[in-house]
Each structure stands twice: as structure tokens, then as C-alpha cells.
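Q: How would the C-alpha cells look for this protein?
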Amino acid sequence: MKPAHVESSTPRLGELMHQFRGLAGPSPEDLVGVELPRHQLRALFIVVKHGPLTVSHLAKATDASLASTSSLAERLVRSGHLQREADPDDRRKVLLVATPQGREVAEQLESRFLQRFERLVEAMSPEGRAALEAGLTDLIRAADELGLRSRDHHGGGR
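A: Here is the predicted structure in C-alpha cell form.
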């Protein structure tokens, strides 16, 4: 039996998005064996996906101050997840680049997340999967039209 079309309320959609954020981020199981705090992991993922980046570009992507991002980057360099390199296009600039260790951590977490996400999606009905894809596609289109898409989902660069 097909449910009647019901217009969803903005507060209800907001609550569902809030609940979804708990599913979309790393779970405690995903983080087993990972020694980095979540804010450092987020920065690492951004550098892996969009890097190499300057500290100022990373600060913009994380919506954090330049001072706190510089400190965060220093911790990731000391832990061996990032390294600093001179920008080949402008020797005055320093770029943050993921090390093999940093890429390995990001790839491991991404793999764990994708496995969990695939299990969730496979448990949905075919109609639910189609509706989710259509709804998310339209939501991203609307965000792009309104200029509201998150900075860390766009290319960063130097």
C-alpha cells in the first residue's frame, strides 16, 4: 500500500537531518585504533580530499580561525599525518600535504564508513533508496543555487 503524499514540515526535516548527522559521521566502531580527535580527523580528511592546502585555505574550509587552524595543523604535522612543503608555484607559501600515514588513516576510516553506509542503504526498501537519492540530489541542487554548500565539499586549492 502506497502512503499518501504528505508535505513534510521544515522542523521535522531539520530533526531528521540532525539524526542523520549521527549516522553520517564516524561511529565509535569506525574510530577504533584511531588516535586523532574528531576536529583533527576532519582537517585531515579535507587535506586528503582537496589538498595540498595552505593553512588559510584549511581555516576557511573548517570555518575556524587562522590561529587555531595553524595550531591544529602543527599537531597533525607532529603526529606524522601531515607535512609542510613549499608551494612550487610560490615559494613564499607553505602547503599542508597528507603523508602516507595520514592518507592511510583517512582511507581506513572512509572504508569503514562506506561499509556501514552500504549496510544501511541495503536495509532500505527500493522505494526508500530512490526517494533518498532524489531528495538528496534536490537538496544539494538547492544548496548550490543558494550558495550554501559547505566549503569543505568544494575544491580548496592553494
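The helical segments are 10-24, 38-50, 55-62, 66-78, 100-122, 126-146.

Residues 40 and 72 are 7 Å apart (CA to CA).

Upvote if useful.
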